[in-house]
């Protein structure tokens, strides 16, 4: 059995929560090629007792923040969601540990999770704040299954044809 789904939660100002929730949900839907725009009022809850938001918030701001929590239990995560996720990284997934991510192995895993956490970080005694983005990918691999060879994605000519074409200096296809 594979678990799937999408969870979206956000702390928003109680007076402007609905409009901003809808705007944020639609923007994230477009950014991550996901169906988050289907998280509407019927799939959104407002828990009264919840944990506090992380990051630097003034006491006056903190008292006006309320949690909005939306779910899409049947949303399937796929490679179209991974590409924009990697593009948010400084090296666009082409260097560092993210270059080791293989989308086929990730989505063939027994369980996977992708998350993005955004929180404000402010200098002490200043209104100068920046947003800190933390991206996380978790996965559970079946080692034996992941070691199985996959077929090549591109058809390749036999080695004899490759060496013959290189010797004749003709362009290879």
Key traits:
two-stranded antiparallel sheet; 6 helices; alpha+beta; 173 residues; single chain
SSE diagram, text form:
Layout: E1 6-13, H1 17-31, E2 44-45, H2 59-64, E3 65-72, H3 79-87, H4 103-107, E4 111-122, E5 129-140, H5 143-147, H6 159-167
Antiparallel strand pairs: 1-3, 2-3, 4-5
Describe the structure in your own words:
This protein is of the alpha+beta class. The protein has one domain (6-167). The protein is built from 6 helices and 5 strands, in the order βαβαβααββαα. The strands form 2 sheets. The protein has a 3-stranded antiparallel beta sheet. A two-stranded antiparallel sheet has the order 4-5. The longest helix is centred in the first third of the chain and has 15 residues, at 17-31. It is globular, with a radius of gyration of 22 Å. The chain starts with 5 loop residues before the first strand and ends in a 6-residue tail after the last helix. The model has no long low-confidence stretch (mean pLDDT 76).
Q: How would a crystallographer describe the biggest sheet?
A: 3 strands, antiparallel
* Principal-axes shape call: globular
Number of domains: 1
Termini gap: 42 Å
Given the helix and strand composition, which structural class is it?
Answer: alpha+beta
Uncertain segments: none
| Percent helix | 25-40%
Strand order of the largest sheet: 1-3-2
Mean pLDDT metric: 76
Give a summary of the structure in a few sentences.
This protein has 173 residues and is of the alpha+beta class. The chain has helices at residues 17-31, 59-64, 79-87, 103-107, 143-147, 159-167, and strands at 6-13, 44-45, 65-72, 111-122, 129-140. The protein is globular, with a radius of gyration of 22 Å.
């Amino acid at each position: 059995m594979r678990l799937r789904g999408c969870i979206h939660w956000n702390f928003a100002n109680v007076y402007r929560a609905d409009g901003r929730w809808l705007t944020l949900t639609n923007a994230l839907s477009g950014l991550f090629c996901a169906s988050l725009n289907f998280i509407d009022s019927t799939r959104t809850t407002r828990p009264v007792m919840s944990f506090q938001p992380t990051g630097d918030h003034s006491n006056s701001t903190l008292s006006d923040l309320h949690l909005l929590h939306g779910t899409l239990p049947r949303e399937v995560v796929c490679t179209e969601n991974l590409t924009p996720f990697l593009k948010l990284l400084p090296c666009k997934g082409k260097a560092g540990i993210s270059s080791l991510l293989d989308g086929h192995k990730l989505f063939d895993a027994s369980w996977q999770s992708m998350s993005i956490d955004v929180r404000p970080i402010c200098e002490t005694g200043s209104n100068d704040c920046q947003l800190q983005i933390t991206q996380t990918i978790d996965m559970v691999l079946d080692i034996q299954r992941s070691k199985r060879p996959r077929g090549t994605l591109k058809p390749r000519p036999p080695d004899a044809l490759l060496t013959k074409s290189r010797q004749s200096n003709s362009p290879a296809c």
